Amino acid sequence: MLNSCTLCPHNCKINRLKCQKGRCKCDNKLKIALASLHMFEEPCISGTKGSGTVFFSNCNLNCIYCQNYEISQLGKGKEISVQDLANIFLKQQEKNAHNINLVTPTMYVYQIIDAIKIAKSKGLNIPIIYNSNGYENIETIKLLNGYIDVYLPDLKYYTDTLSKKYSNVNNYFNVATKVIKEMYAQVGPASFDKNRINKKRSYN
Question: What is the full DSSP assignment across 115-136?
Fold first, then answer.
């Protein structure tokens, strides 16, 4: 599926399997910058034990104010395999993380789905959070149905003037709001336990 990439609205259609790179600067390799037990996300996510964050390298936006620009724009990070990613998920669970927190994951959705399948087959059972910038194709979010428990989109702009000025993208608000509606359709409203930690979604 990476031979004509359309994961986000840039629709570069480049062949990432041949190591071509589009707007996000990603090729066929899975790349992460950091995996850690993070105590500084929203309190309902970090809770008392921390969120099991995985920061993915690169990004399909170029926000001029990005605090993680070395990761998002300079591509800082390490290439790993899908199996490695699955093992990271399991290791976060072993550390008693409240959840798996996928930060800027859009460019790697196919690999992430495979890693989730592997990790779940080996006992992964904590909630999985999809923490994105909201600039992605609805088809990409539909692929995630059944794999993600909590969506955490960061709605950045309400006018094209602002999105073009600060992130160099057009039609951001229209794209992101449609994506957020699809996210909501999949998982519904936020749900919390007594400690205000996001619950794992129940699948029927």
Answer: HHHHHHHTT--S-EEEEE-S-S
**Euclidean distance between CA atoms 151 and 128, whole angstroms:** 9
Assigned domain for 204 exists: no
Quote the CA–CA distance of 93 and 127 in Å, as a whole number: 10
DSSP state of 77: S
31 pLDDT band, cuts 50/70/90, is very high
- Give me the number of domains the chain comprises: 1
Q: pLDDT tens across 80-139, in order?
A: 999 999 999 999 999 999 999 999 999 999 999 999 999 999 999 999 999 999 999 999
Q: How far apart are CA 56 and CA 163, in angstroms?
A: 22
